[in-house]
Design brief:
Elements lengths: L9 H14 L12 H8 L3 H14 L2 E4 L3 E4 L4 E4 L6 H7 L4 E11 L3 H6 L8 E10 L2 E11 L8 H4 L3 H8 L4 E12 L2 H7 L6 E11 L4 E10 L3 E4 L10
Parallel strand pairs: 3-10
Antiparallel strand pairs: 1-2, 4-5, 5-6, 6-9, 7-8, 8-9
The structure holds 2-amino-2-deoxy-6-O-phosphono-alpha-D-glucopyranose.
Length: 245
């Protein structure tokens, strides 16, 4: 398995050995790896070399370390297409996950200046402010801070906020959601994101801001979502335009 005469560095050979165990399904997400000491004894190499191999796989996101517990095979990342205006609930159901919500904040207030600008609101209008942790099979995937124009999306309640907003807007209110624009920014989790998403402060997250309009152009929501960097990768289809300069 480990060839000490090979020109390939030993840490690299260990890494490939671990990778193969995961590819073959012998080690599955959530499984704990043997300790560095056991690895070192098994392959008759130093613990430093084992650590180097593991650290690189942790950095790649294939393994994760838990303080005081050990090293585990990481969950597979979920691939989220960036085109297509879908809801969290729809996205999770399409993948066979049970969508869930933890509602941390629900209030009605006048809009902040940013929200008023984004949603074309007057200072005297009201906005629903929601803070939700979105769950897949009970595991936190994203934190969402949502502002909803209360004059457009009426009679929102805590109950509705704990299920699908888009479903309420379309099925109950009979409105048609038309289009949205989004921006993406990478960041590191602060204390608050870390606690709510059950990750460590300093772990990578991706902020996605979305402004959504009804079909007639009326903007109704402005959302900032923090997605866990270890659970998501985003994909996009890029057709090459035929009209080029
Ligand atoms: C995604 C979007 C949000 C949107 C939400 C609606 O998570 N990033 O902008 O508010 O879907 O999801 P649901 O209908 O499940 O509440």
């Amino acid at each position: 398995m480990i060839d000490k005469n090979s020109p390939l560095p030993i840490y690299y050979q260990i890494q490939e050995w671990i990778r193969k165990k995961m590819d073959d399904g012998e080690w599955e997400p959530g499984d704990m790896l043997p300790s560095e000491r056991i690895f070192a004894e098994q392959f008759n190499i130093s613990r430093m070399t084992v650590r180097q191999a593991i650290t690189e796989l942790v950095n790649e996101g294939l393994l994760r370390r838990e303080k005081g517990k050990g090293t585990f095979v990481a969950e597979k990342k979920l691939e989220q297409p960036l085109q297509g205006l879908t809801s969290f609930t729809e996205d999770m159901k399409a993948r066979g996950f049970q969508p869930g919500n933890k509602l941390y904040e629900f209030r009605v207030t006048p809009p902040s200046r940013d929200v008023a600008d984004a949603l074309n609101m007057k200072k005297t209008d009201s906005v629903y402010e929601l803070e939700r942790v979105r769950l897949a099979d009970n595991k936190p995937m994203a934190l969402e801070m949502t502002s909803i124009h209360a004059g457009v999306v009426t009679n929102l309640s805590k109950d509705i906020a704990q299920s699908s907003l888009y479903n309420y807007i379309e099925q109950t209110l009979g409105l048609t959601i038309g289009h949205a624009s989004q921006t993406l920014e990478s960041a590191l989790a602060g204390e608050k994101e870390a606690e709510l998403l059950q990750i460590e402060a300093g772990d990578p997250i991706l902020w996605i801001s979305r402004k959504t309009h009804l079909q007639d152009g009326t903007p109704f929501e402005y959302v900032r979502s923090a997605y866990r960097g270890d659970r998501y990768k985003f994909s996009i289809h890029l057709p090459r335009s035929t009209r080029r300069h």
